[in-house]
Design brief:
The chain is mainly beta. The protein has four helices and 34 strands. A hairpin with a 3-residue loop joins β7 and β8.
Length: 619
Amino acid sequence: MTKLIYAPWVRRAFLTFALLALLLLLGTQPLPASAASPSFVRLVNASPDVGIVAVFVDGAKFLGNVQFATVTDYLQLPSGSHKVQAALISIGGRTTIVQTLSVQAGIAYTVAAIGTKSTGFSLRVFVDNNLMAAGMARLRFYDLSPRSYTLSIAIGFNRLIAALSYPQVSNYLRLRTGQYTFTISASQPPFTLLDQVTLKTNTVTGIFIVGVFHGTPPLRFVQVQVKGLPRMSGTGSDQNALVMNASPFTPLAPWPLGLLALGGMSAWILTGLWPFIRQRTRGRPPHLYRSLLTTVVALAVTVAGLSLTSVAANPAPAPFARLLIPTIGVNAPIESIGVRPDGTMETPGQNPWNDVGWYNAGPHPGERGSAVIAGHLDRPGGNPAVFWRLRDLRVGDSVLVVDARGKTLRFHVTRIMSYPPQDAPVQDIFGNTAGSFLNLTTCAGDWIPTQHQTALRLVVYTSLGGQGPVSPPPSSSPAPAVTPTQAPSLSPAPAVTSTQAPSSSPTPPPPSPALLCNVSSTNLNFGQILQGQVLTQQLTFGNCGKQTLNWSITIRTADGAAWLSVSTSNGTIAPGNTVTINVAVNTGSLAVGNFSGNVNITSDGGNQTVNVEMTVIAV
């Protein structure tokens, strides 16, 4: 009789779980379009006849006052071809080099100003690779000393480089961390010099050999050490895998464990006590044994469910902060993660599917540089994880980081890009120091069984926009139910306040007005510009309201001259969208000096003044 009662319920339960699994498999994951990353360029002044180098790119000043034997930090430069003018200033006068520099997106370069008065001056370009060797150090030598000798480099009796000539660069060497004394020697003219270097874990060191042996300036070694960059981690899962095969084991969320405990107690009552309620007679030991065995199993399930519920409800505290993305309903603890032995960034380990991981070898969110946070796209079997809806973000959306003291940092999405993992521009993702950035990463594309990873990596680039209080969205545990035509929503249904009576008026409230927001910059500084040049910068702003925003632009310059202009002076912006215009300056008719002006945005959703500054210098 008991079997007949419970058999339909068992069949329905299995049917329900099978249907959910099928719907998950039918879910689709559209990918965002990729955009170009910048390139990264550093300059070394290696010419013994040049005291100072100033570099102009496409007419605008890129670097200035780079003294001899100085290596600059990496600076951001748009990919493509550029006209480069290098002003070489020495005791004897000033010389200008004009070359075309072609750079690729996401690649790091070292540009060396080399040569002498007798041989002529030029710019030599080297491609850098700052990927780390996990647990070790990487090193290479740049021979920029303008003499005909060939160098050999050794550690004690171990020769590392047999022949390095000017102007060449060695291959990267992998060495254990520690202090080394390198012997640099040449046969013609014969000399031997020692250079002591301390190599640190997960760093990339460049040793620049500049100057002249027995000359002026003397031969010297310039050491530059940068943090090595990790490879992109895999944050996707095999949709055909069983959840029980996921490793490491992580307790489920509290609510399913609570149901498990409740189910165990119910099974205990129904299957363990029911026979004794129905049974008034004695003398049936077999039934008693079966009831006792069922009771023990049900009790074990109950205790396990209750204990795991308490663990899941009180997870290990996050190191310092939470990540909030209101647009997609993410509210996740941030774990501190490092690198794996193969050099890839780790993924969250305490609660892999619901937490996110901050790369602890990079800057903290809000500091100068690129902070990186990774999160899983899905769980084994295809169920959504914390960054399931990361692909739904749009340019201008807010990303918030809240620390343990309640301080909130607000970032704005600037780019959304996807890459094959081997082609991801790690210099851009991890090594961009041009501002304060927070980059979010997860997996995308199809699962490749032979590689045990997805085909793409999704990167959402954000830039620091401000600080202030915030009302966090609810915790971002993804919803278990999925429809076959729509990705699961991470945002729970809005709560209803218990003290608020329902409105008796059938008329809906008026929509929120238009709101001017997400202005990309309030100060456009063009820096130093050569006379006769025309330069542009982009200015982006958006509409965070619920009605269409009408906007117009007026221009004012301090001197009254018409050197400042915009590509579009008026328009409209739909709710939730942005517009980008070009702001141009023309130095053709201007004298040498400092100039300033304003771009005034006027709209029915607020006003904003953008300051414009530049310095015109002689050719």
